[in-house]
Amino acid sequence: MNNKIAIVTGATSGFGLLTALKLASTHFVIATARHPEKAEALRNRIAELSIESSIAVAELDVTNEQSISSFSEELKQYGQIDVLINNAGTAYGGFAEELSLGDYRKQYDTNVFGLVAVTKAVLPYMKKHSGAKIINLSSISGRIAFPAFSAYASSKHAVEGFSESLRLELRPFGINVAVVQPGSYQTAIWETSFAAQVTAPDAESQYKTYFERISAYIAASRKHYGNPDDVAELICRLAAKKRLNRLRYPIGRGVRLSILLHQILPWRIWERAVIKKLLK
């Protein structure tokens, strides 16, 4: 077994799966899965790759306190945790007026409260030595919000704020905290989460035309979405570093430029550009 131990939440698909499999070459990975059937599928994938000695699969529902408590108890057998990668997440879409409070709560339960709860459960195992790392998956939406993404974007803004504060709190203990900010990538979150959980306006909605144009823009942009392997590679490089000197690590086509322009342009110019692009 590798000496360094890493946890990857939401490891059954997308960035989580790719990261867990790549990281197994340098760390012993505890890969978590919310659903038993997905946990079993992950175990089968690991067996096919003959890397059972490098990855253990643990069932974990980040929205369930009992599940988190049980997971924390399981960690006692490992003694210490070197890397925590908070990847588990979901995406809700729709206009704020038409989304229910329940939609917002479910979005935050996974992306924010689940992330915080897992971090709190794992931290005691990370403070046993200096040099541990917490890598939180944010998004470009954690810096820039777009229409029909208020639930998702605000949850990622919360992740950014939590991570910044946590980094300063844990600095005296030698624990590094960072966020990875992917742009648009070909991952299952848009097919299985966002597509299934989008609240589309009905025929009488004032937002109907706006929504259709946003949807068309997203569909047309998908051919430019990046390879999720690139994000997994970045996460693994960060996990291997002795120290994370930066808080934020943006990645993806046009992400750095978009963040820069969002920071330096007067709001009226930025707003006009966004609306023009979406409604043209």
UniProtKB/TrEMBL annotation:
Q: Which PROSITE patterns match?
A: ADH_SHORT
Which family does the record assign?
Belongs to the short-chain dehydrogenases/reductases (SDR) family.
> What InterPro entries does the entry give?
NAD(P)-bd_dom_sf, Sc_DH/Rdtase_CS, SDR_fam, SDR_oxidoreductase
What are the recorded GO MF terms, alphabetically? oxidoreductase activity
What is this protein's name?
Short-chain dehydrogenase/reductase YusZ
**Organismal lineage:** Bacteria, Bacillati, Bacillota, Bacilli, Bacillales
Entry superkingdom: Bacteria
Gene3D superfamilies the record matches: NAD(P)-binding Rossmann-like Domain (3.40.50.720)
Instruction: Output the PANTHER family linked to this UniProt entry.
Output: SHORT CHAIN DEHYDROGENASE, SHORT-CHAIN DEHYDROGENASE_REDUCTASE FAMILY PROTEIN
Alphabetical UniProt keywords = Oxidoreductase
Q: Name one Pfam family in it.
A: adh_short
NCBIfam families to which the protein is assigned, alphabetical: PRK06914.1 (NF005372)
